[in-house]
Each structure stands twice: as C-alpha cells, then as structure tokens.
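Quick one, T. Sequence first:
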Amino acid sequence: MDMEAHEHLPDRNRMSVVIAAVMLAYGVTPFVQIAPLILQTQLPGLFLSFTIDFSTLSSLLAAALAATGSWWLLLDHPLYPTWQNRGRHWLLPALTAWVIGVPLNTLEVGPEWWALFGLGGVFLVIVLLAEYIALDPEDVRHAPAVVGLTALSFALFLLLTVSLKATGLRLFLTFPAITLAVGLAALRTLYLRLVGVWHWKGALFITLIVGQIASALHYFPLLPLQYGLLLTGLAYALTSIVSAYEEGRTGTAQWLEPAIMLGVLSLLAVLIRG
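Structure tokens:
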C-alpha cells in the first residue's frame, strides 16, 4: 500500500451533512418553546425533582446524530471490511455533541452563544476527522490524530465540568453527567494509548475516584474554572498512571507526566483564585 493510500479523509459531502444535522439540532433549540415535563418523587429524607425540557431532548438527539453520523462517515473508509470493535469510534463524537449542548442550553442567544456554537462546530469537525484518521494505524497522521483525540477528550471534560458548576445544579444532577463523561474520556484514551485494548477496569477505577472527588469539591467555594481544572488534572493524571502501568513503565517514566499535568492544572486553579 503506497503513501497516498495511508492519507484517507472522509467524504466532504457526508461530513457536511453530519455537522449540519448536529448543529441544526442546537440551532433551533432556543426558538422552540415546549412545556417541560417535571418528574418528582419523595424518598425518605430526600425530595427529588427532574425537569425534562426540549433542550434536554435536543442534547440527546445531537449525541445520537453524532454517533450515527460518525459511523456513516467511517463506512466509506477503505479499511471498513477489516474493522474490529467498530463501536469505539462513536464514543467521542457522541460525547462531543452532548457536551456542546450543556453550556449552549444555559446561555441566552447572543454573541457568547454564537461564539460557543461556532466553537462547538469546530470541535465536532476535528473529532470526526481525527476518528477517521485514527482508524488506520498505518496512516502517516495517526500519531497526531491520537494526541488530538486525547487532548480533545479532556478539553470537553473541562468544558462540561465548568458549565455544570456554573449552572449551580444540585449534586444528584451533576454527578451522573461528570461520571459518564470522565468514564467515556478515560475509556477512549486508554484504548488509544494501549493500541486497541478495552481497559474497562481502569476506566471504572478512574470514574470512581474522580466521581468521589467531584462530589467533595461540589461543596467547596470554588469558581467554576477552578473546579473544572482540578477535576480535569486529576482525570488526566489517573488515566496516564493506568496507561503507564499497563504498558509496564515504572519509576519516573510512570509518574512524571501525570505529576506535571496535575501540578500545572492545580497551580492554574490556585492562581485563578488569587
């Protein structure tokens, strides 16, 4: 197979359709007014109330469109008949589309909303391109694609945690979203770093630790960006440690990268407070 055969790109028409469908789901949301469905239940010592509105449904629809759209794009890849575990390629696109909706659904339509809307579209384009390239280990752009997917996974987690903290939602609403996001980000990152190994136990370990720390930090008087930086630093550090352990790295090689990232992001959180 020659060099050109290892530089595949998705069909531009299919890509345009997928991006347009996902962003349209968010573009019409502020202009659709439907009475929300309120679900309430009384537990011993705890009253729970859930509101399901059109923005919630649009986020789920966008995630579903991104997942099926990524699968549709990858159907056109020359290596499609040889794929194994094909479902891995819809995880990050679905997460991307869902996370975009969290801040969009909390802002009024204005310059900030449109800026975030455009940034979300850019994120979605990048992740779909990177997923397409990462499918072929022999592609000359495979390594940058893997790095990009890893960085984007944790950037999305940062955006989600900051947005959830800024909304002031109660813990029982933010906890499932945070654990789901960090679980998907860790699982996809470990798969990329371990070259095709689904490390469910490692992802579950990371999810449990980050979920517990997120629950504790929820009650601290932290700014949204501080909260997000601390959790993102922890999630990245734990993912790096699990990855290094599975790869057989020991000593400085195992701890240097996670220690640096955790230290840098924690320092940024402290400086923001000052």
